[in-house]
Design goal:
With 446 residues, the chain is mostly helical. The chain is built from 18 helices and no strands. It is globular. The two termini are 36 Å apart.
Amino acid sequence: MSVSMLMRAAVVVALFGVVSRFLGLGREMVLAAVYGNSGSADAFVNALNIVNVISAILLYVMVTVVIPAFTAEQEREGEASAWSLAWAITGWMSLFVIAMATVIAVFPEAPAALFRLDPERAAITRDLIRIMAPALLFQGISAMFTALLQIHGKFGVPAAVGTAFNLGIIAGVVAGQQHLGIEAAAWGVSAGALFQVLLQLPQFLRVARAEGTRPRMTHPRLGAIALSAAPIVGASAMQQLNSFTDRFFASSLEPGRVAALSYANSLGAAPRAALLIPLMTPLFPFVARVVAQGRDREAVRGISRVAGLLALVAVPASLLLAVYARETTQLLLGRGKCDAGCVTETTGPMVFYALALLGNFLSVFFNRTMAAAQLQSAILVATSTTVVITIVFDIILLGPMEQSGLAAASAVGVYCQLLMYVFVLRRRFPDLDVRRLSHRQALLLG
């Protein structure tokens, strides 16, 4: 893909990213206004966390594994073999997603019990998980479509799936909250996930027909890909473990704290979704190809330039959100059932999520770069270590700081992970000038 094509793709993805992020904020505003930081809102956040954790793992694995695998197979054996490999991966992933969605729909008590909620919130969580179970299937299919379309330079439609998902939730709440209560939001989750599939399906079918390949379940290198994907799955699961432990620890606090933590996380993550993902999505396939072809010098230059660009965007956003956390929360969420107490409970953790923006931006980029360089084991080790560090700080800070302590622990973990990633990349790419890179980041912070 040429530089001009990359730029056009970046613009398209950025536009959809901004629209999706605004709708994401709109979704949080609607949820906060209708349900506030109530016990039922806690139940919805926990149920949605189950769906989001599994979906995030699937999307991460599909994008991080399938794109480099397809690129490498294309270089070695040609387009037809690469597509056969992609179809085989997709087939087995489909079976896995169907089985998991079925089990969760039939036995929602098991995932609901993970949060150790009081009986009232636990019962609501079970009902919501059952309603949201189809979303697992739909989001799994959507993740497969996203990876296969990105391989062929189709970034616009996959970038719009977040918009479809958020619209589904908003529509569900607006249309059904008077009659269904919190269940309206759960039905909106499943509807939004279905919209993600329907949005990508036509373009996916056109690409598949153009390539002239057929679905299959076998490929000579399928086993090797599965083995190489194991550390990626483990790393992604470990990354999502912190999301679960945050909800787990917050569930031990007074009702409403889980929802407040979720609102703060959504507000703090707004710049990441609106700015980082649009920048990263069109660049990662290019980085994967450069690394696969052994062009390390170009990779090093790309790492340095992209890291500088990410810092240029992240630092101002981080400082603004941290300094004006309460004003931002009041402006965006302070209406309806999200009263002054709801705003106060959300503001504290939002400050720490904002301060972690730079670390999040760089960690995501370095993680993708390491995956392209076949450093999956190092990713797993770094992620596992980060999870342990974060949980330790969760336990230490939960008592004195409550949900704000959980956000602070998350920020500590993010920067510890970033340091480990830098160490590994420096060993893999000796020409990477860490001092110069750090100096640029320090200048921006100064």
